[in-house]
Amino acid sequence: MQTKQSTAVLYTPPPGGELGTFFKSAPKIRPLPNVGCLFDIYTGRYYYGKHGEAILSGGMPHLLGIAGPGNSFKSVLLHYFILQVLNRYVRTQANIYDTEGSIQQARLNALSVHLKRIFSIDLVDLGRMVLVDSPTMKLDVWYRAWREWSDNKLKKENVNGWTVESPFWNPKTDTYVNTLIPTLSEVDSLSMATTSGVQDIYDEKDIGSSDMNTESLRSMRDKSQMLMDMSDATIATNSFVGMTAHIGMKHQLNPREPVSKVMLFLKQKLTFKHVPEKFQFIPNVVWYVSGAELLRNDTTKAVEFPRNKDDDLKGDTDLQRLTLVALRNKYGASGIPFEIILSQDEGVMVGLTEFNYIRSFDRFGISGNNVNYHLDLYPDVNLSRTTIRGKIDEDLRLRRALQITSELCQMINHWDDPESLFCSPKALRDDLIAMGYDFDSLLDTRGYWVYNEDASEEAPYLSTLDMLRMRRGLYTPHWFTKEQRAQLKPVS
């Protein structure tokens, strides 16, 4: 969150000391796509647009790692990041590199059930996605193809066609920030990926022979070189790559040797499996699935949040509660755990995740009792444990209210508030209504940014920070009509 500006101090560089003469400045902002589900605030920050709107850049980093033990839903989480960007940013393409022989188009379609733009669409036939597996392309072959695909965007004859206008504003040049259309990739998993050189060793040597001893060293070297090269390449070409990695127990050859920690927020006896050390510090963000448990009701033993009244099967294992920790986060704090609600059938459950988050912080923005309740931002809709899942699926305003409430809760928990903007959800709603705002219309908005070329097809953009600033009279939505502006009252 941006803070108040300090008083400027006049500075004149000494003769020949202008820094711009010697160095080329990096862009002040490289816009990161929003993916929602608590990830945007945790990894993002706000910038201002041309009309004074606060735009959140965060969610999907250029280089993403997701790590955890076996059967901890790492792949489902990674698919969520990729599919959500494909859903929200309609010009994007993705390639899915499967090293474990488990990814199918039908599975990706099932995980897209709540993503309105890509659900029921065959992205492969449409040309927006390609699925690649290890028998078809080894890691080094895939990476050469990835570099060609990514670098193709920078060619003189292609770059204009790949360039789009973001809503972020550069006040120095008085222009919008241009960027390249994102291209997306996932490697699932890096732990199991093999290169052609390693495969040659497997093909030519017998298992157990001394000649196989170099296999691990060769594999680590090849993966390390790829990560080093990919670090700059993703940023230069506005590419976004996610990788999964296995975590398991560290084996000590000398039992008397002290066990060292691999990363600060990873338990001492755990380590990454079959990935190089550079995986610990090259990705912009590394999420660690530190725990997973069934989410069942203690009394009924059925699913905690049923789809409908008929969803009452005892012993149902569909919903899982994952605990995530950022082992590495170049954009903010690391080591703070939070929970993601996931359906084995439908993937990441965004609304339930946001509800679970605010419920865990003293029922932030929730009024009523433990059986029947409502959101303070959307009090007209009554909720209960057995109805909330279905109502989230049906009601866009409920989904927006959950997003705003959970983002506000995160901001209060993790960010400073130098301008004294933060307030309770009830105060936010009540005060905006008192100022003349139609709150339901504020919920008929979009909470993620898109490229300017695509904005006309979307609902108006309104961020959580914008709503806090509106309450203080610091911002009025630039897309308001004259009639809407005329109905507003001054801040009391």
Describe the structure.
This protein is an alpha/beta fold and 492 residues long. The protein has helices at residues 39-43, 74-88, 105-110, 123-126, 139-151, 159-162, 196-204, 215-236, 350-360, 388-394, 396-414, 425-434, 439-443, 464-471, 482-486, and strands at 45-48, 54-57, 63-68, 93-98, 129-133, 163-170, 175-180, 183-188, 239-249, 270-273, 285-294, 319-329, 338-343, 347-348, 366-368, 373-375, 378-383. It has two domains: 26-255 and 262-281, Rossmann fold, CATH 3.40.50; 349-492, no CATH class. The strands form four sheets. Strands 3, 4, 5, 8, 9, 10, 11, 12, 13 and 14 form a ten-stranded mixed sheet that branches. Strands 15-16-17 form a three-stranded antiparallel sheet, with helices on one face. It has a two-stranded antiparallel sheet with strand order 1-2. The longest helix is centred in the middle third of the chain and has 22 residues, at 215-236. The protein is globular and about 70 Å long. The mean pLDDT is 90.
| DSSP, total strands | 17
Helix/strand-derived category reads alpha/beta
Number of helices: 15
Largest sheet: 10 strands, mixed
Number of domains: 2
Helix amount, in percent? 25-40%
Task: Predict the CATH topology of the largest domain.
Answer: Rossmann fold
Low-confidence stretches: none
Whole-number mean pLDDT? 90
What is the CATH level 1 assignment of the largest domain?
Answer: Alpha Beta
Strand content: 15-25%
Measure the end-to-end span.
Answer: 25 Å
Radius of gyration over alpha carbons? Answer: 24 Å
General shape: globular
CATH architecture descriptor of the largest domain: 3-Layer(aba) Sandwich
